[in-house]
C-alpha cells in the first residue's frame, strides 16, 4: 500500500510490513519554479511534489515524507510567489513536518476545537495532485469521514472517502465550516488489495487527525488559530477559505 508521495504508515505490532513507493518523477518539460543549482552549476530538478498550508506567519505544515530527502524545497503560493521553504521540525512517526518560509504565504487556516468529528461528516480536501499533469491550480475534492481510525485501527488517522492522489500529501482536510480537522497523508493501494481480495476498493484514503497535528505544532512553539467547527458553508466556500493559505511544494534534488 504505497502512501501518497512516498513514506510509510505506522504498522500495528506484529503486522506484516507494507510496501512503500516513492512518487513518480514529475513530467519532463520547462518548470518556472526550479530555482537553486547543484555544485558545478547544474540546475536542480523537481523530483516530487506535495501540498502544504499556513499554520502561523511564515510557517507551513505538511507531511514529513514530502520534505524528506530534498536538497531544496520550493513553495508556490496562491499569488504565484515562489519561495524557499526549510524544515524546522519533524515528527516521523506522525509523518508531519513544520516548514519555515521567508515571505508572505497567506493567512493561517483555523483548526477546529470542537465538537468531536463524527463518522459521516462532510469533508473537503484542497491540494495539488499530480502536479504537471493535471491543472496547474489547486484541486478540490469532497467526501466524508468514513471511520474514526485508520489502517489496522491506527488511532492517529481518519479514514476518508474524498478522492486524493499523489501530490495531495500534506494538504488540509477541512470540515464544512472551513476548519482544519486533519492533514491528508495516504491512500490505499487499490490494485494490491484487489489482488488479495478480488475486489477493487474505492476512495479509501487517510488523514492525520487534527488533534495530532495540533500537539505537534504546539510542542514546536506554534500557536495555531483555533475555532469551533460550525458547518454551513458549501464546498466552494470552503475552497475559497483554503485557497490563499495552501501552497504547492516541490522537492528539488
From TrEMBL:
GO terms for biological process: proteolysis. Belongs to the peptidase S1C family. The lineage of its organism: Bacteria, Pseudomonadati, Pseudomonadota, Alphaproteobacteria, Acetobacterales. The keyword Protease applies. Residues 1-20, 32-46 have a biased composition (Low complexity). Residues 1-47 are annotated as: Disordered. Signal peptide: none annotated. Keywords: Hydrolase, Protease. It comes from the Bacteria. One of its GO terms (molecular function) is serine-type endopeptidase activity. Residues 21-31 have a biased composition (Pro residues). This is Serine protease. The keyword Disulfide bond does not apply.
Amino acid at each position: 500500500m504505497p502512501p501518497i508521495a512516498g513514506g510509510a504508515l505506522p504498522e500495528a505490532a506484529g503486522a506484516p510490513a507494507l510496501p512503500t513507493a516513492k512518487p513518480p518523477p514529475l513530467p519532463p518539460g520547462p518548470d518556472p519554479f526550479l530555482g537553486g543549482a547543484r555544485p558545478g552549476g547544474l540546475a536542480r530538478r523537481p523530483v516530487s511534489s506535495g501540498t502544504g498550508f499556513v499554520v502561523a506567519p511564515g510557517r507551513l505544515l505538511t507531511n514529513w515524507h514530502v520534505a524528506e530527502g530534498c536538497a531544496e524545497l520550493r513553495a508556490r503560493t496562491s499569488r504565484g510567489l515562489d519561495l524557499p521553504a526549510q524544515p524546522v521540525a519533524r515528527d516521523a512517526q506522525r509523518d508531519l513536518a513544520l516548514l519555515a518560509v521567508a515571505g508572505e504565504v497567506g493567512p493561517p487556516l483555523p483548526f477546529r476545537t470542537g465538537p468531536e468529528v463524527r463518522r459521516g461528516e462532510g469533508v473537503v480536501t484542497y491540494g495539488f495532485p499530480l502536479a504537471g499533469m493535471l491543472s496547474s491550480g489547486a484541486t478540490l475534492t469532497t467526501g466524508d469521514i468514513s471511520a474514526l481510525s485508520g489502517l489496522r485501527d491506527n488511532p492517529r488517522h481518519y479514514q476518508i472517502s474524498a478522492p486524493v492522489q499523489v501530490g495531495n500529501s500534506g494538504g488540509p482536510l477541512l470540515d464544512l465550516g472551513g476548519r482544519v480537522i486533519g492533514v491528508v497523508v495516504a491512500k490505499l493501494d487499490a490494485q494490491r488489495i484487489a489482488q488479495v481480495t478480488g475486489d477493487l476498493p474505492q476512495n479509501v484514503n487517510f488523514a492525520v487527525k487534527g488533534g495530532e497535528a495540533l500537539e505537534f505544532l504546539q510542542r514546536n512553539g506554534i500557536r495555531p488559530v483555533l475555532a469551533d467547527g460550525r458547518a454551513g458553508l458549501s464546498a466552494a466556500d470552503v475552497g475559497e477559505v483554503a485557497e490563499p493559505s495552501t501552497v504547492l511544494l516541490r522537492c528539488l534534488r
